[in-house]
Design goal:
The chain is mainly α and about 700 residues long. Helix content is about 55%, strand content about 5%. It has 27 helices and seven strands. The chain has a five-stranded mixed beta sheet with strand order 3-4-5-7-6. Strands 1-2 form a two-stranded antiparallel ribbon. It is globular and about 85 Å long. It starts with about 35 loop residues before the first helix and ends in a 10-residue tail after the last helix. Zinc ion binds next to α17 and α18.
């Protein structure tokens, strides 16, 4: 018999199922193909289920090690495969990946339901919690026990069998609906673009047109220039296009995403999601879904959230109305004979800003080259936390535009890898986010985290550098702040790592980091002209900083109205929102929404609250965190040095490195020495002074 093993080439192993022979054991993206995912998930589910069975069948009396720590160790493969998969789903998908995503989201719900509702497992956790005082646990272990118990309890582990069965059905259906919600949104974004002929470019900067050409290239429309529905293309277009008709077209397409009555329409999904959430909250014993969600947050109750939002809403609305009158006056001054419409706001407020503050975004963009801003973000982190960054060209990535840096700690040891995927492309969903391919932990030895920032900046055309708008630069710092929360994490247990904190606390590290971006000390050094290398001129810097508070009424109204409608969706009976558009209109009338301003996220495109439940009844979180970040930066101002080493050390120890190992309120008070004062937020947004009557 011939030795056949010499003749047939061996089937290449599934790269998701073998140990990764790459530097830092990072995912070998070039080898991973869509067809590898389902078999890998299959194996991962089986492994995890076996690990859970081993815990529940353990004849030994439950203790912290054989139950809580064992749970923390379980599911390694599932975590590993999921991280790679969801990175691709969000940042570089294709039809095959999206098809698999539908299957995976369902399988994921089916896998987790029996674990989270496992009565034996929950019994072991509950007994430990009951006897926690006698277990001599460290503070982190005590927190982990409490969080684990809460997680299982809130998932319905203590319910009767019938209720559990219904909860499982609801979870499966919600997983399906959330996935299709985001697929619809992506499809509506991919299907639409506006071609800019030579006559359609009035008011647009050269860099905008270059970017519009790059966007056309990316969609195989070489030689043309297009506006896509990416926010980072839409907002600058609305700000600068002198063509009112085209602004209207782009605005309407942007705000109609997911609401076009086509195959991508999200209205029906919203109705069903809200009704299922309401039902599940009822099964778990809560009057509303918001009450259920907010119990496990810093805010604790819908009333506390509404209190904060209303406190901000009144001055913001007053400011926006005064601004509206000023914009209408400007239109009249120019001889315009029309009422300000939502697609005019950004355009005329930019004009007003140029006239009043003598500043326009286009003037500063040449000083905000992406590379310089990355350098600035890194430098601030070095000064605050003693970490350094060195680019690595040998780490596999999912797209050639992705860059990777090795991050080293003060003592020179590798602390993390940081992946930056900065440019918009049609395979990426819109927005900007931080995520990880692997989280920090040290349960079985130090694990170096792999932290990602994904943005949608417009790529420079023909090898020109990408020039950021002030908002983009702020986004870069924001996501990098989340990144630091992941990279500086210093906890033992994986489920407490980095950003595993309450949703209304998680924006503190990111929003706080934005403060450094707008400091003269930082801009003078890093905002250099991309061609001449000249630093940002003094007067432009001064005007830029003054212009920061401009249009804050609009920005605040746009945000708070979205947060309020999220809260209403989840506090009112689901039956009230059976007609989503009518509900939206009614709510906007109720709060006195200025007609010239649209919600930052209309319901049909509100992925934060409908693509999954992460920000459901939680969109307010950004503002809750802002109360803390505005107040927290004051600690550096009071020290007279924005890099003050003593304050920076507290910030590192209490906020950036502690992950979910500490109660967030206690963490904040440890850092600041007191509770946050909400006035700092209104002051920062320039909303403390009452606007003059127009
Ligand atoms: Zn954020």
């Amino acid at each position: 018999m011939p030795d056949t093993s010499q003749m047939t080439p061996p089937t290449p192993a599934n790269p998701l199922l073998v140990a990764w022979q790459t530097p830092f054991s990072t995912p070998p993206f070039a080898e991973i193909r869509p067809e590898h995912f389902l078999p890998a998930f299959e194996q991962a589910f089986a492994d995890h289920s076996a690990e859970i069975a081993a815990i529940t069948q353990d004849p030994a009396t439950p203790d912290f090690a054989n139950t809580i720590t064992a749970l923390e160790r379980a599911g390694k493969l599932l975590t590993k495969v999921s991280a790679v998969f969801y990175d691709l789903v969000s940042a570089h998908s294709n039809p095959a990946i999206l098809e698999i995503d539908k299957e995976v989201s369902l399988r994921m719900a089916r896998h987790w339901n029996p674990i989270m509702m496992n009565a034996v497992l929950f019994g072991r956790i509950a007994v430990l919690r009951e006897n926690r005082k006698g277990l001599s646990l460290t503070a982190e272990e005590m927190r982990l026990l409490e969080r684990t118990y809460t997680r299982f309890h809130r998932a319905g582990a203590g319910l009767g069998e019938d209720a559990k069965k219904r909860m499982a059905e609801i979870n499966e259906r919600l997983a399906h609906l959330g996935t299709s919600f985001s697929h619809h949104l992506l499809a509506d974004e991919q299907e639409w673009f506006l071609e800019l002929g030579d006559d359609d470019r009035a008011g647009l900067s050269d860099s905008f047109v270059a970017a519009a050409k790059a966007a056309a290239d990316e969609r195989g429309l070489s030689g043309k220039a297009i506006v896509t529905l990416s926010r980072s293309a839409v907002e600058p277009f609305l700000k600068s296009s002198a063509r009112r008709d085209l602004r209207e077209k782009v605005f309407k397409a942007f705000t109609a995403r997911g609401d076009n009555g086509n195959a991508n329409d999200n209205n029906a999904a919203i109705v069903e999601i809200l009704s299922l959430r309401e039902e599940s909250a009822g099964i778990l014993g809560y009057p509303t879904y918001a009450a259920y969600r907010l119990e496990d947050s810093m805010a604790k109750t819908p009333e506390a959230v509404r209190g904060l939002l209303e406190r901000v809403w009144k001055p913001a609305r007053a400011r926006a109305l005064a601004d509206r009158d000023a914009l209408q006056a400007l239109i009249a001054e120019e001889g315009g004979n029309f009422a300000l419409a939502p697609w005019d706001w950004r355009y005329y407020s930019e004009k007003l800003r140029q006239a009043k503050a003598n500043f326009d975004d286009a003037a500063i963009k040449p000083y905000l080259a992406l590379d310089h801003m990355i350098e600035a973000a890194f430098d601030c982190a070095s000064r605050l936390f003693g970490i350094s960054f060195a680019e690595r060209k040998d780490i596999p990535v999912w797209h050639p535009d992705v860059r990777v840096w090795e991050v080293r700690g003060r003592e020179g040891r590798p602390k993390a890898l940081f992946y930056g995927d900065y440019f918009a492309r049609s395979s990426k969903r819109s927005g900007a986010w931080m995520t990880s391919l692997r989280d920090q932990q040290k349960l079985d030895g130090e694990v170096v985290p792999l932290i990602l920032n994904i943005c949608n900046f417009v790529k420079g055309a023909d090898g020109e550098p990408s020039l950021l708008s002030p908002d983009d630069a702020r986004t870069l710092f924001h996501e990098f702040g989340h990144g630091l929360h992941g990279m500086l994490s210093n906890v033992t247990y994986p489920s407490l790592s980095g950003t595993s904190v309450f949703t209304d606390f998680v924006e503190l590290p990111s929003q706080l980091y934005e403060h450094w971006q707008e400091r003269p000390e930082v801009l003078q050094r890093f905002a250099r002209h991309h061609q001449t290398g000249e630093p940002l001129p003094e007067d432009l810097l001064a005007r830029f900083l003054a212009a920061r508070k401009f249009n804050q009424g609009f920005a605040t109204v746009e945000f708070v109205s979205s947060a309020l409608i999220d809260l209403e969706f989840h506090t009112q009976p689901a039956a009230a929102s059976r007609d989503v558009r009518a509900f939206e209109r009614a709510e906007m009338t109720k709060i006195g929404m200025p007609e010239e301003i649209a919600l930052r996220h209309r319901p049909q495109q509100f992925g934060h609250i409908f693509s999954g439940d992460h920000y459901a009844a939680g969109y307010y979180s950004y503002m809750w965190s802002e109360v803390m970040d505005a107040d927290a930066f004051g600690a550096f101002e009071e020290a007279g040095n924005i890099f003050d080493p003593v304050v920076a050390k507290r910030l590192h120890d209490d906020i950036y490195s502690s992950g979910g190992s500490v109660d967030p309120e206690a963490a904040y008070v440890a850092f600041r020495g007191r509770e946050p004062e909400p006035e700092a937020l209104l002051r920062r947004r320039g909303l403390l002074e009452t606007p003059k009557a127009a």
